């Protein structure tokens, strides 16, 4: 996947090193301290990439207003302020910096736990009011208490390890972390229903999504220990605020440390003013070290993508990292070329892709997307790329199935290859179908066969496929080279090469590369059975 970024918009304050790193890579950068929706919507059309923190809302309207936006970079972890689905549909890569603020967020969480245990903020406020209330602010030791960590990613595990130093027993829940992995950093990974009754303290470190919204609510509070203390420095909405207030008032919850809220700035004054609530204005990443790391990380990640050095922090294409690997670029060009050729030859609605050989193991999905790009190019309203090809294909009524086989059939070179079959109607192969075979020799995509007609007898054991091309079929013995040459020259173009295949059930295919497309194929149509033109 080729990404070319010449101009970047930074819509809110980030560390100065972010701008410096991008400019050192030859990228122009415009910086703003903040931008509202109207300003961002008006400006975004002028930029190839956008860098934001949590204060910028990148809505579908903003994304739709962009003419050539390719990357949205989040200098931080959470991306709930970005419409990731809309970005993906428009082929925009979304990236974050998952490591940049992990330590700062973990340390704030640990501070919240300590403050809840010893009532530190309340005691400070009392003493500043010239009161001496030692008995009022008695607390409890953390030693021997059980801490439940919901979400065992980078931040969750950092919290667990630090609180283990206080002698806390750490249990947790994360459906994406194997139990043997969490055991390595001292956390027993348990089902949620087993977590609630065991915890003296619970802290949350998950993204906000439908499955985590309201995770701690009236129902789950009833399953918790009486006077459980709750910390949320992840995302507002994971803890239902109305349920939390009811639990605090009833004594079911003994205290809460909140850095995030369902609405920011928060308007639930009853919750904020509760004597057992410690609250801060979303300070998880608000350290100079975290801001510097996040700014530097997102800049370096964008530069890495520009240079084709790899993909780090991808949110909406984490399974497509090989699409950014230079080693596989020739194979993606092959997929696009075979897709374009198959579309020109047969307008089918079902596509079957098979990749062969160990070299192609793991890029089946990426290759299938490349084929869709070739088929749908110039057929859809949005620019198409690896990210949005499946979405646009679905909207166009195109179905794709992909499989991979380790063994390489004899009809392919030893390095492997691929088969693209396009059908007109049914998902199974029928008489109205076309199969193209291709491979990559060196770094050159080549066409090996159309149906049973092979080009393996060509000098390069296949036809280099790219540029402006004609594919035509004739009956055996019909020689059209001179006619093609004359037509091409008369149109002001040049014939780059002309190669014919073996016979296919009595017919023969020929591949022609020309320097410029032909506006009129009618002259050639009188000499051939069929002819199509396409460009890769």
TrEMBL record:
GO BP terms, alphabetized: L-serine biosynthetic process
D-isomer specific 2-hydroxyacid dehydrogenase catalytic domain span: 8-316
Name of a matching Pfam family: 2-Hacid_dh
Name of the top EC class for this enzyme: oxidoreductase
UniProt entry tagged with the keyword Acetylation: yes
Pathway(s) per entry: Amino-acid biosynthesis; L-serine biosynthesis; L-serine from 3-phospho-D-glycerate: step 1/3
Its EC number(s): 1.1.1.95
Domain of life: Eukaryota
UniProt KW keywords: Acetylation, Amino-acid biosynthesis, NAD, Oxidoreductase, Phosphoprotein, Serine biosynthesis
The protein's assembly and partners: Homotetramer.
Name of this chain's protein: D-3-phosphoglycerate dehydrogenase
Provenance organism: Eptatretus burgeri
């Amino acid at each position: 996947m080729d990404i070319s970024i010449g101009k970047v918009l930074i819509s809110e304050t980030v560390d100065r090193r972010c701008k410096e790193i991008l400019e050192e890579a030859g990228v122009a950068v415009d910086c703003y301290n903040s931008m509202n929706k109207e300003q961002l919507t008006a400006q975004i059309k002028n930029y190839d990439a956008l860098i934001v923190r949590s204060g910028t809302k990148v809505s579908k309207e903003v994304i739709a207003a962009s003419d050539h936006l390719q990357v949205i970079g989040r200098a931080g972890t959470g991306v709930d302020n970005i419409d990731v689905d809309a970005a993906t549909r428009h082929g925009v890569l979304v990236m974050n910096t998952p490591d940049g603020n992990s330590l700062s967020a973990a340390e704030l969480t640990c501070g919240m736990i300590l403050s809840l245990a010893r009532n530190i903020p309340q005691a400070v406020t009392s003493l500043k009011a010239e009161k001496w209330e030692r008995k009022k602010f008695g607390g409890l030791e953390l030693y021997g208490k059980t801490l439940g960590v919901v979400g065992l990613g980078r931040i969750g595990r950092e919290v667990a390890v630090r609180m283990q130093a206080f002698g806390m027993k750490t249990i947790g829940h994360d459906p994406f972390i194997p139990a043997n992995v969490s055991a390595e950093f001292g956390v027993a990974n348990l089902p949620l229903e087993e977590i609630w009754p065991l915890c003296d303290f619970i802290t949350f470190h998950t993204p906000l999504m439908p499955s985590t919204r309201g995770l701690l609510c009236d129902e789950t509070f009833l399953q918790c220990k009486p006077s459980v203390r709750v910390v949320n420095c992840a995302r507002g909405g994971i803890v239902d605020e109305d349920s939390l207030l009811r639990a605090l008032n009833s004594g079911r919850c003994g205290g809460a440390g909140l850095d995030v809220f369902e609405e920011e700035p928060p308007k639930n004054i009853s919750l904020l003013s509760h004597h057992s609530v410690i609250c801060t204005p979303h300070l998880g990443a608000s350290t100079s070290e975290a801001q510097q790391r996040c700014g530097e990380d997102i800049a370096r990640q964008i530069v890495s993508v520009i240079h084709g050095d790899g993909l780090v922090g991808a949110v909406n294409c984490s399974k497509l990292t090989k699409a950014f690997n230079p080693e596989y670029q020739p194979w993606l060009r092959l997929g696009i070329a075979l897709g374009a050729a198959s579309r020109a030859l047969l307008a089918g609605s079902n596509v079957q892709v098979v990749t062969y050989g160990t070299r192609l193991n793991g890029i089946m999905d990426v290759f299938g997307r490349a084929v869709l790009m070739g088929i749908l190019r110039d057929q859809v309203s949005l620019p198409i790329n690896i990210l949005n090809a499946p979405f646009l294909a679905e909207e166009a009524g195109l179905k794709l199935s992909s499989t991979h086989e380790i063994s390489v059939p004899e009809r392919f070179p030893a390095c492997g290859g691929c088969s693209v079959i396009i059908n007109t109607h049914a998902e199974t192969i029928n008489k109205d179908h076309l199969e193209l075979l291709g491979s990559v020799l060196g770094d050159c995509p080549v066409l090996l066969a159309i149906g049973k007609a092979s080009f393996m007898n060509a000098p390069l054991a296949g036809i280099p496929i790219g540029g402006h091309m004609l594919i035509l079929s004739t009956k055996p013995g019909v020689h059209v080279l001179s006619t093609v040459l004359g037509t091409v020259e008369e149109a002001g173009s040049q014939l780059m090469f002309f190669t014919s295949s073996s016979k296919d059930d009595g017919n023969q295919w020929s591949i022609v590369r020309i320097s410029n497309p032909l506006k009129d194929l009618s002259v050639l149509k009188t000499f051939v059975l069929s002819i199509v033109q396409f460009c890769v």
